[in-house]
Automatic annotation (TrEMBL), chain A:
Protein name, per record: Uncharacterized protein
Record's compositionally biased regions (Basic and acidic residues): 243-255
Domain of life: Bacteria
Region ranges (Disordered): 219-264, 491-532
Biased composition (Low complexity): 505-520
Phylogenetic classification of the source organism: Bacteria, Bacillati, Actinomycetota, Actinomycetes, Kitasatosporales
UniProtKB/TrEMBL annotation, chain B:
Molecular function per GO: 5'-3' DNA helicase activity; ATP binding; hydrolase activity
Domain of life where this protein originates: Bacteria
One family name in Pfam for this protein: AAA_12
Domain DNA2/NAM7 helicase-like C-terminal, first and last residues per copy: 311-406
Organism whose genome encodes this protein: Streptomyces piniterrae
Protein name (record): Helicase
Family the UniProt entry places it in: Belongs to the DNA2/NAM7 helicase family.
Boundaries of every DNA2/NAM7 helicase helicase domain copy: 38-97
């Protein structure tokens, strides 16, 4: 945890209210996100119990499995889920814009510009918590290798139509969610903890109800008794801490949590006291038992559903960061690329990545992380303050500018800028510095020395961002009294080197996939068949 | 348990030079005449890894087999080129570098047989071409090199090897398995257990796919003194023990100025006498850049220089003065290193290397002063417990190592046992950081000087 986040958490403890970690919203929030609140069956990996799905906060679709151990009912649920989700996911596929991209011409081997489709918008799934993202991955894995009757007419137990397709999309969303800053699939707890710091632990922040209670505590508890209300705090609303405690533990007369877990795990007390007896009645064929289970599951889902939308409201109150759209565009590329793979009839994503794909994914995520860290700081003075506190950036006022030129055949402007700063950023010798120019470009500079006569003053030499001419372009050299912010980190870090094609995987990494002797796919001798 | 490992001491006669020579001969034989595509050499700290790389490179070149050398940092590459040129000033060596200004050590320009370039094509025909893995990854060759040497292979990530492995047919992989493992700033759990997990070390991927490659290890540390090798070997290399090349009494550290009786001077005397010193500050939870501990580190360095230290070793019969260039300060975090540098500058001390464990890897000094990674912390995270971090910090010295630490680290360790999840298919590394930390702490406590700033 960074120092500034620790400070924010201490502030939250002291005031009883969450403290802001950001002044802008650092993730894209769709106009029309799809909220997906799943529940799973305790003790049965990959057996969904129910879900609320939809883009309309007033009218979620309730899907429920009255007996999750019944595979037919489970498949009926997955088919229904596909029916309610895929129209939304596909709904963005046909509205496209054109982008120019450089591609290698297969005949000449040269890079030539080509026009390619880019979807104008993309779907956005929001689940309540990080565990919900894992559950999306699990569902994706369990669905994408299924075969429908159309694909394999002879095979027994065909999957309902669209189920494999939903599995592939869920897998894609789950993988994309591992890319730092990506927004196709987001968890509400992740979104809220990025923008606010609470006075509880990171683990406790995974409880959506408690987290919201810190950020936006209710004006007063709707059901609290007068005895518990103290006069003064009641006027200002309850403290976040008290509201969080209540969110975690308060139960109604039936013993149900007022704020059930955000899923996919359920409250054990609910399972034992209410759900298990209702399922027993369903198994026994008692009339009305199915409706009863639907009602019970909805009672557990609805508070979380409302909480997710409450979170969306809070986040919409923040203006988006300037570079958020840039990152969303990458999500749109990702969506478009997967749409194309599905349309081209490519097989589902493999069970495991091969060596080259794994290395590629890791490299692109590391680049995305570096870009995200830089962009968030540039978009948000509060985040930049954290970087300054961590000794990775400094802000100061220009006190003097002295023109100078580089040596060599073509002297280039290398002005020396003196600035005064109160930041105590340790600068290594000849440290490379970066500054965002108003036109969005980055200016580079080099740390020269601390000014001898004046504490807190230092000299940097501008080394770029001034155009190609002998005189710097107007506005590219700061002037005295300008406030400038230099960072020690790059603003647009580059990606890594090109990797070999999978069929050229070297001997150190087992050779091309599928080659003999590869240790990864030794058959499991203990299990007769393995569909996952 | 540690005691019993110490008990293995010289029951039989041990000739370090002969043992090391035999190991080197076997490695060179496998490299030059072996049938296999790879040879792996594990080297404990200061066991002559660089000497081995230089020798293997020269012998391959002499046999008319040009080779590429892959190191991990520019400093390592420059150091290798300088060593090669020192051994044989007429050997044609190419230094492939990035196109950034100041990409290589200007001293290389003085060497007559060394050619530097940012393009591999300019270096065609050189016997040996040396560069970093990052630069090699952008290089394309028509015909792969027949030989390569991969230096610091345990610090290289599997995905970095993937980008360069297509450039060579066979390779000698040399590295220290006890130092810091490579890491990733983003999660890589999804590939844990796969043989080619891109975030694991190059050697673990190589051996997972080629388990029958010949593996060697260098048995003697020439750097670590007899006072340090048993502890470092037992704490960090429990199943591959090594010995020091020198014996007790071969090296001596003495001061011209007698002790003033302060805690700082007493810990210096203790370290000069025994090779280890622990300056223990009162227990306290502090920020990372604990001002008192930072000041204590600076004072220790200041007194080391002010008291006119002199080091006698097997290199020469006359004592050599302990200069600032022969002293290093090691920390866990960069901001701690920056704070120590500032504190040293206030004392007027310059030229002392102050850096994090990552950057001190592979370097050697007479005396090191270490700010303990767990000093003043309220918790012990996986980062601070990492075995390699402590191993690097405790194995850079030829004479003595002085650790500055807040009291209470043993209790802190007991409150924070390792909680890393066990991943299927991943070889569990021994020892874990928790055990290694305890082993080192137990040894240091015998050389403890309490001090109240």
């Amino acid at each position: 945890m960074s120092l500034i986040e620790t400070l924010a958490r201490m502030e939250a403890v002291a005031t009883g209210r969450a403290a802001p970690l950001a002044t802008v919203r650092h993730r894209h929030l769709s106009e029309q996100p799809l909220v997906f609140v799943p529940l799973t069956t305790a003790g049965e990996a990959g057996a969904p119990l129910g879900a609320l799905v939809g883009t309309d906060r007033e009218k979620p679709a309730l899907l429920a499995v009255p007996q999750p151990r019944n595979r037919d009912l489970r498949f009926a649920f997955l088919a229904e889920l596909a029916e309610s989700l895929l129209p939304y996911v596909d709904g963005f596929a046909d509205v496209v814009e054109w982008e120019e991209r450089k591609e290698t011409d297969p005949e000449t081997g040269k890079k030539v510009p080509v026009q390619v489709e880019l979807c104008a918008d993309a779907p956005q799934l929001i689940v309540p918590s990080a565990a919900g993202i894992d559950f999306v991955r699990l569902l994706g894995r369990s669905m994408r290798f299924r075969r429908t009757a159309e694909q394999e007419p002879e095979a027994p137990y065909p999957a309902p139509p669209h189920v494999p397709l939903l599995g592939r999309w869920f897998t894609h969303f789950g993988e994309r969610a591992r890319v730092p800053g990506a927004s196709l699939l987001l968890s509400m707890t992740g979104l809220l903890t990025r923008h606010w710091a609470t006075g509880q632990s990171l683990l406790e922040d995974q409880h959506l109800g408690a987290l919201l209670a810190w950020i936006d505590p209710p004006a007063r508890h709707p059901t609290s008794t007068p005895r518990r209300q103290r006069s003064a705090p009641a006027l200002q609303g309850v403290s976040g801490r008290a509201a969080a405690e209540r969110a975690e533990s308060a139960r109604d007369a039936d013993g149900r949590l007022l704020c059930p877990p955000a899923g996919p795990a359920t409250d054990p007390a609910f399972d034992n006291r209410l759900l298990a007896p209702a399922m027993a009645r369903f198994d026994a064929g008692v009339p009305g038992a199915e409706d009863e289970i639907h009602g019970l599951i909805e009672s557990q889902l609805r508070p979380t559903w409302d909480a997710v939308w409450h979170g969306i409201d809070l986040l919409r109150g923040l203006p988006p960061g300037a570079r958020v759209a840039d990152r969303w565009k990458r999500d749109r590329w990702s969506y478009t690329a997967h749409r194309d793979r599905v349309r081209a009839g490519e097989p589902p994503q493999p069970r495991r990545d091969d060596a080259v794909t794994a290395a590629q994914k890791l490299a692109s995520r590391e680049t995305a992380q570096a870009q995200l860290d830089a962009q968030e700081a540039l978009d948000d003075p509060l985040v930049m303050a954290g970087r300054r506190l961590a000794g990775e950036a400094l802000e100061g006022t220009v006190t003097a500018v002295e023109m100078a030129f580089s040596e060599g055949r073509r002297p280039m402007p290398r002005p020396l800028v003196t600035l005064r700063t109160a930041d105590r950023t340790p600068l290594p010798e000849r440290a490379k510095l970066y500054r965002a120019l108003p036109d969005g470009k980055t200016q580079t500079a080099e740390f020269v020395a601390y000014a001898a006569e004046e504490p807190g003053a230092l000299v940097v030499r501008l080394t770029g961002g001034m155009g190609r001419g002998r005189t710097p372009e107007p506005g590219s050299v700061p002037e005295p009294d300008d406030a400038v912010c230099w960072t020690l980190f790059e603003h647009a870090p580059r990606g890594g080197p090109e990797l070999p094609d999978p069929e050229d995987t070297p001997w150190t990494h087992g050779g091309p996939p599928g080659a003999t002797g590869a240790p990864e796919d030794t058959p499991d001798t203990a299990t007769a068949e393995d569909f996952l | 348990m540690l005691g019993s490992r110490y008990a293995q001491r010289t029951a039989y006669s041990f000739d370090p030079a002969a043992e090391a020579a035999a190991a080197t001969d076997a490695i060179l034989h496998d490299t030059l005449h072996g049938e296999r595509r790879g040879v792996v050499v594990d080297s404990p700290p200061g066991a002559g890894k660089s000497t081995l790389v230089v020798r293997a490179a020269r012998e391959l070149a002499a046999a008319g087999r040009p080779l590429m050398v892959v190191a991990q940092t520019n400093a390592q590459v420059d150091d290798l080129v300088l060593r090669l040129a020192e051994k044989d000033p007429r050997l044609p060596v190419g230094r492939l570098h990035s196109s950034e200004p100041g990409a290589f050590d200007p001293a290389l320009a003085e060497l007559p047989a060394v050619r530097t370039s940012a393009k591999a094509a300019d270096l065609a025909g050189m016997d040996i071409v040396v560069s970093t893995a990052a630069k090699w990854a952008y290089t394309k060759v028509d015909e792969p090199w027949r030989h390569a040497i991969v230096d610091e292979a345990y610090q290289m990530r599997s995905d970095a090897l993937l980008t360069v492995a297509g450039l060579f047919e066979r390779a000698l992989f040399v590295g220290d398995p006890g130092q810091l493992d490579p890491f990733s700033v983003v999660g890589a759990d999804q590939w844990a257990g796969l043989s080619y997990d891109p975030s694991s070390s190059a050697v673990s991927t190589l051996l997972a796919h080629n388990p029958d490659l010949p593996q060697h290890r260098l048995p003697v540390s020439w750097r670590l003194p007899a006072s340090a090798a048993p502890l470092v070997s037992a704490a960090f290399y429990p199943y591959t023990p090594f010995r020091s090349g020198t014996d007790h009494g071969d090296r001596r550290l003495a001061f011209g100025v007698p002790s003033d009786g302060s805690g700082v001077d007493r810990v210096l005397d203790e370290a000069a006498e025994s090779g280890w010193g622990l300056l223990e500050l009162p227990a306290r939870h502090t920020p990372r850049t604990d001002p008192e501990a930072v000041r204590a580190v600076a004072l220790v360095v200041g007194r080391l220089l002010a008291r006119g230290g002199a080091a006698t070793s097997e290199h020469s019969p006359d004592p050599a003065p302990l200069t600032a260039a022969r002293i290093a300060v090691g920390t866990a975090h960069r901001d701690q290193a920056a704070a120590v540098r500032t504190a040293l500058a206030e004392l007027g001390v310059t030229e002392v290397a102050v850096d994090t464990a990552n950057r001190l890897q592979g370097r050697e000094f007479d005396v090191t002063v270490v700010l303990h990674p767990l000093s003043g912390r309220p918790d012990a995270t996986a980062f601070h417990l990492e075995t390699g971090r402590l191993c690097v910090l405790a194995s850079r010295h030829r004479h003595a190592c002085i650790v500055v630490c807040r009291a209470g680290v043993a209790d802190l360790l007991d409150e924070h046992p390792s909680t890393e999840p066990v991943q299927l298919g991943v070889t569990v590394k021994f020892p874990d950081g928790w055990e290694a930390n305890h082993a080192v702490l137990a040894h240091l406590s015998e050389h403890r000087v309490p001090w109240r700033p």
